[in-house]
Write a structure and sequence with these properties.
The protein is mainly alpha-helical. Helix content is 66%, strand content 5%. It contains 22 helices and 2 strands. A two-stranded antiparallel ribbon has the order 1-2. Helix 3 runs parallel beside helix 11 and helix 5 packs across helix 15. The structure holds aspartic acid (ASP). This is Amino acid transporter. It comes from Danio rerio (Zebrafish). It is a multi-pass membrane protein. It is found in: Cell membrane; Melanosome; Membrane.
Length: 539
């Protein structure tokens, strides 16, 4: 690699080190600075180097499938498969390790650096986008299930159904599911929230009435394994807002969270280079471990097709179209910038685990500012699940068809609404959506024992589902960036414009904005008085 052939920005970006001050280069096609014409070999070399990570990640998925198919014939034992999947397991561990510091620090510093009114407006737009797109995804799921009719049984389903009933989640009452969601928003113990969530269980107690003894099903609270990310998000945001209220007194803590956040992102850029290897082994190990694939495809092929086509329509047409209509920018260029994160979502089946890489991708390839990505992506990864809503709707209609239960209009609307709501409650972990699917089935009185069928193919459907879940978050961040970047003329955008970070604003600010200081240059007397907004925050 000679210096004159490769611009420093390209190398930085391919190393995950690009900064927002560097204009985002569109997938390695950034303008070359040399005046002399390049040879084709040099062009190819430059393109490959600038897109090395993307090329490696996509190749990893393909090579993983090939290795998996090859090793499958070797007849590995269970233990050998576990050892074989070790590099993939390591990637998941690395990504999980980074989630808590990343989510907490980015939200505290994000909320602290944005004016509360602008924060409210920004959050409001994001929620509206998330709500509308999730409803559309649910509608696509229902329509696909009515068109393809996956529940027309040919007898093979019962064979499958008999295979595995043990892992079917216990059905919860709809009211308890929603109450649990609210309880988890307010964790009683922050430390425990890092690894435990609240979940209602049931016990039966005798209830003596005058004439008879009845058994009453009483909800009891239990703590189950699994990070309560919703609780952490709400706390971190509230804490950030409180920190901002402290003004000068809160500056040190804000700087602490900012530095923590930056250091975490450096770790993420290192992990990114391990991702291709990890993804390759995750995919390969899954293929080796699969049981009778042909039976799954012949019996549940239509269901899988419904989900995958629904996800493709939403991810390749609907979301890009919405982005294009609002921004008039090429949505597929935006999508290309996300390839590494999307491949990671496919490999890990987890929105939470994909979050660190998604932040890197939208910031470095799509020019979304750190303020926006680090505020909106953790929220999106937790509450915005378009893919989950889509497959849950397909699954609900599929189970109804399987049991010969006709669905009326009100039930269809109930499925749409509950799928949208329950996708919010779904955790961004593998099979997170299947767990909340029970809520939808309960709400329209469908049997929950057929969930084992859904689980049988969830390892596959969950992958496309997670890709769509994270893609929706990224487009949300892109749209917010567009809203913030729009020229500050209209009244309704005034608040959003307050969080513009790359514009020079000479208007004195009435509030202290310590995070809009140059890094390491904080001077208390300056911060306490009116001060022009400087270019880039330390966030
Ligand atoms: N695995 C999905 C995710 O992490 C959640 C789901 O199962 O729907 O986004």
């Amino acid at each position: 690699m000679t210096e004159e052939n490769i611009s420093i920005e390209d190398v930085k970006a391919s190393n995950g080190e690009a900064h927002l001050d560097v204009p985002p280069h569109a997938n390695g096609l950034s303008e070359h600075r040399r005046s002399e014409p390049e040879s084709t070999a040099q062009k190819v070399k430059r393109f490959v180097l600038a897109n090395l990570l993307v090329i490696l990640t996509v190749s990893a998925v393909i090579v993983g499938v090939l290795i998996g198919l090859g090793v499958r014939n070797a007849g590995l034992s269970r233990t050998q498969i576990i050892y074989f999947g070790f590099p993939g397991e390591l990637l998941i561990r690395l990504l999980k390790m980074i989630i808590i510091p990343l989510v907490v620090c980015s939200l505290v510093s994000g909320a602290a650096s944005i004016d509360p009114k602008a924060l409210g407006k920004l959050g409001g737009w994001a929620m509206l986008f998330f709500l509308v797109t999730t409803l559309i995804a649910s509608a696509i799921g229902v329509i696909m299930a009515f068109i393809i009719h996956p529940g027309s049984s040919d007898g093979k389903m019962s064979q499958l159904n008999a295979q595995d009933d043990s892992s079917v989640p216990e059905a919860k009452d709809v009211i308890d599911s929603f109450l649990d969601l609210i309880r988890n928003i307010f964790p009683s113990n922050l430390v425990a929230a890092a690894f435990q969530s609240y979940a209602t269980g049931y016990k039966f107690v005798k209830n003596d009435t005058n004439s008879s003894v009845l058994l009453e099903k009483v909800p009891v609270g239990t703590d189950v394994d699994g990070m309560n990310i919703l609780g952490l998000i709400v706390f971190a945001m509230a804490f950030g807002v409180a920190l901002r209220k402290l003004g000068e007194e809160g500056v040190i803590l804000m700087k602490f969270f900012n530095s923590f956040n930056e250091a975490t992102m450096v770790l993420v850029s290192w992990i990114m280079w391990y991702a291709p290897l990890g993804i390759m082994f995750l995919v390969a190990a899954k293929i080796v471990e699969m049981e009778d694939v042909s039976l799954l495809f012949t019996s549940l092929g239509k269901y899988i097709a419904c989900c995958v086509i629904g996800h493709a329509i939403h991810g390749l047409l609907v979301l890009p179209l919405i982005y294009f209509i609002i921004t008039r920018k090429n949505p597929y260029t935006f999508l290309l910038g996300l390839v590494t994160a999307l491949a990671t979502a496919f490999g890990t089946s987890s929105s939470s685990a994909t979050l660190p890489l998604m932040m890197k991708c939208v910031e470095e390839n799509n020019g979304v500012s750190k303020h926006i990505s680090r505020f909106i992506l953790p929220i999106g990864a937790t509450v915005n699940m378009d893919g989950a809503a889509c497959f849950q709707c397909v699954a609900a209609v599929f189970i109804a068809q399987l049991n010969g239960i006709p669905l009326n209009f009100v039930q269809v609307i109930t499925i749409l609404v509950t799928a949208t709501a329950s996708s919010v409650g779904a955790a961004g972990i593998p099979a997170g959506g299947v767990l909340t699917l029970a809520i939808i089935l309960e709400s329209v009185g469908l049997p929950t024992n057929d969930l084992s069928l859904i689980l049988a193919v969830d390892w596959l459907v969950d992958r496309t589902c997670t890709v769509i879940n994270v893609e929706g978050d990224a487009y949300g961040a892109g749209l917010l960036q567009y809203l913030v970047d729009r020229h500050p003329n209209k009244n309704e955008e005034e608040e959003l414009d307050k969080i513009r970070v790359e514009e020079d604003d000479a208007t004195p600010k009435p509030e202290i904005r310590p995070l809009i200081e140059k890094q390491g240059n904080f001077e208390p007397e300056e911060a306490a008085g009116p001060k022009p907004c400087e270019k880039e925050s330390v966030m």
